[in-house]
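Reopening this ticket.

The earlier resolution said the output was attached, but the attachment link was broken on my side. Pasting everything inline this time so it's all in one place.
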Amino acid sequence: MTGKKSKIRFDGTQPKVSAEELRQKCLELRAWGRWGEDDEIGTLNHVSLEDIAAAARLIRSGKTMSLALPFDQNGPAHGRRGRFNPVHYMMYTGTDAYSGVQDSHGIRYADDAVIMPLQCGTQWDALSHVFYDNHMWNGYDIRLVDGTGAKKNGIEKTKDKMVGRGVFLDIARYEDVDTLPDGYAISAAQLDAVAAYQGVEIRRGDFVIFRTGQMGARLRAKEWGTYSGGDAPGLALDTAKWIAEKQIAAICSDTFGVEVRPNPTDMIRQPWHWIVIPNMGLTMGEIFYLEELADDCAADGIYEFFFCGASLPITGGVGSPTNPMVIK
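Inline output:
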């Protein structure tokens, strides 16, 4: 039984890093050209057709779970860097139809529209989202992202790639807390320890999804507070090398930005992003709803499943909303 296994305890700290040390990590893990000079999907190349077929064989009961927050005015985006919650409005309604104004068209109907930043809720970062100096993933010039969108590394390049074996790592439950505290740094050693405790192996091409509990705590409190860009538990810098060595396809979390905040350096904001997106080519999913999945995995002891989180083929998009699905 999982509950009888011993746990290694972690304190959630990590050392400070200098700007020079950070640049060394970027160069050490840089994978430009690994999949060819024209590549635009980075670590998603780790997923093979055989991997997807094997992931489909993990489906046993047909149980499905969505990992998306509702896209509405109750979301976490409250204006930080111009992001806002979706604005949903009705173009035609039942009251219009009832009044008879549509009868000349020969059909009564409703139509609606939505205005939203692409990264205001459950979403994927494209490889054109974060820059390293004057370059983005695979060495492309950042000026290729202009007022009309991304000419390289646009999110549409991933439209049929977000599928394969999903693995869930419940860090908060491992630590016996509802939520990890803000500033708690999850190390590579802790990721390994949680996987071993849960009896699941991380493999090449996996979509690794980890839970801090932060979103669940904010939903229960009915107050987002500083969730959007504020302090948070998340991945430490040493996990970047772990991800590269494991050849993970993508990593996803229930926090706003996946990495720990405050950052381990005062000189560069989001240093982990700096390493993994423009240099490693890592795809990441943010703001994933994981409370239902956590309870289900704890109940059945199964932490691997078929995963599909299709991105919208928004030409030139630097991110995309998604409705990620787990199928057991």
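Reporter confirms the inline version is readable. The chain has a mean pLDDT of 95. The longest helix spans residues 19-29.
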